[in-house]
Write a structure and sequence with these properties.
By secondary structure, the protein is of the alpha/beta class. Helix content is about 35%, strand content about 25%. It has 14 helices and 15 strands. It holds the Pfam family T2SSE.
Length: about 400
């Protein structure tokens, strides 16, 4: 069995490095699975010179490896696991039902982990090298039940001799609002409130730290957008999706690979989105200059949604304003004034909604947004029913007279 395992490791290393183009063609459908396996078979016979009786066993083990995730396959298949973090070959941790814990899963050796990292990258048409020492990609086809988002850093930047690998699992079957209620993600009154907000005029921000549930919540609410509205969703990794909305477009970034020249970042997609006939403009997660185009869309009448990392709902707006400010000549106060059509801010903590804040307008004297807390778990505030009634009475708000240039 050791000889078979060594053979599989040898083949994997060969196709992850010297024959990466061949395996990429197979994953893209440019050559058939049968032709690729025949290519592998010739390598086993002519290069490895394996005995005839071992060839079927080597091919079987290699097939399991190349079309699956071998060592961590059971963790990927486990629906209770949302995140897999590979710290070293013998230290693989997971987030199971929202709690971090260790596992007894391990790779054979540090070298085996390095080969695995190269394989994961090659499988998704990426490469790990000095110029790609920190990489992120999404595998939509590697598992039948989950979209897998990879974040990998190599020993070139790590203070270790092996890569770090973090895998976020996004269910391909979207979690519905009713399911989120049953899971304690939100209450029934929150669901009514957010569904109303999703269909009404005004923007929405989901904020919190990484893994707090921002994407899950926003993904569920996408299906509540009225079907007669057009929508563009741009994102770094393909996590947001809808199988029911008839007029919702999805785009993702394309990053340089090594010395490659092709690059479409969120800023490019956002700029192009402003040329489209849209009602809703959604950015999966705002991290930089794309905030300026998000501001432009919001200020010119689009219903804008986004997520970002922040420690509170009010801090989220300051951070969003600073992103836009750094990409323009505006002051923070000017940006905040133009962001007043972001009506609702949802703050996530430990995979449930912890705080909901409304923006009522802009205070010219204080030069700041006017906030109203409608739900705060820690403070024991729950004004959601009253907020719904007030929203129905509020109607259209007047925009400031300032123009966006």
């Amino acid at each position: 069995m050791t000889d078979i395992r060594n053979a599989v490791r040898n083949i994997t290393e060969y196709y992850a490095t010297q024959e990466a183009s061949t395996i990429n063609k197979m994953y893209r459908g440019q050559i058939s699975k049968a032709d690729f396996l025949e290519h592998v078979r010739r390598y086993i016979i002519h290069v490895l010179r394996a005995e005839e009786r071992y060839i079927p066993l080597i091919m079987e083990e290699f097939s399991k490896y190349i079309w699956g995730y071998r060592t961590i396959a059971d963790l990927i298949a486990d629906p209770s696991v949302s995140d897999i973090r590979i710290m070293s070959h013998d230290n693989i941790r997971v987030k199971r039902n929202g709690r971090r814990e260790g596992t007894d899963v391990c790779f054979d050796s540090p070298e085996d982990l390095k080969y695995f990292a190269d394989y994961c990258a090659t499988k998704c048409a990426h490469s790990l090298s000095v110029v790609n020492a920190v990489a992120s990609w999404t595998d939509r086809n590697g598992d039948p039940d989950f979209i897998l988002r990879f974040n990998v850093s190599t020993p070139f930047v790590n203070s270790t001799q092996t890569p770090y690998i973090h895998i976020r699992k996004i269910p391909k079957t979207k979690t519905s609002v009713s399911q989120l209620i049953r899971k304690g993600f939100m209450s029934a009154s929150m669901a009514v409130y957010l569904k109303e907000k999703a269909a009404s005029d005004g923007g929405m921000i989901w904020c919190g730290k990484g893994g707090s549930g921002k994407t899950t919540g926003m993904n569920a609410l996408l299906d509540e957008i009225p079907s007669d509205k057009s929508c563009l969703v741009i994102q770094e990794n393909e996590e947001l999706f809808s199988h029911v909305h008839p007029e919702m477009m999805f785009q993702h970034i394309v990053s340089n690979q090594g010395d490659g020249k092709i690059s479409y970042q969120l800023e490019d997609l956002a700029r192009n989105g402003l040329l489209m006939d849209l009602d809703y403009f959604v950015i999966g997660e705002i991290k930089g200059k794309e905030a300026l185009y998000f501001l432009n869309a919001s200020y010119t009448g689009h219903r804008c949604w986004a997520s970002l990392h922040a420690m509170s709902s009010k801090e989220a707006m300051i951070k969003l304003a600073d992103y836009a400010k750094y990409a323009s000549s505006y002051t923070r106060e000017q940006v905040l004034e133009m962001f007043q059509d972001i009506r609702t801010i949802i703050f996530m903590k430990d995979f449930h909604i912890s705080e909901i804040t409304e923006i009522l307008g802009f205070d010219q004297k204080e030069k700041n947004l006017i906030y109203r807390t409608v739900y705060d778990e820690k403070a024991g505030i729950d004004l959601l029913p009253a907020a719904l009634e007030k929203e129905s009475e509020r109607g259209e708000r007047r925009r400031p007279e300032q123009c966006f240039n």
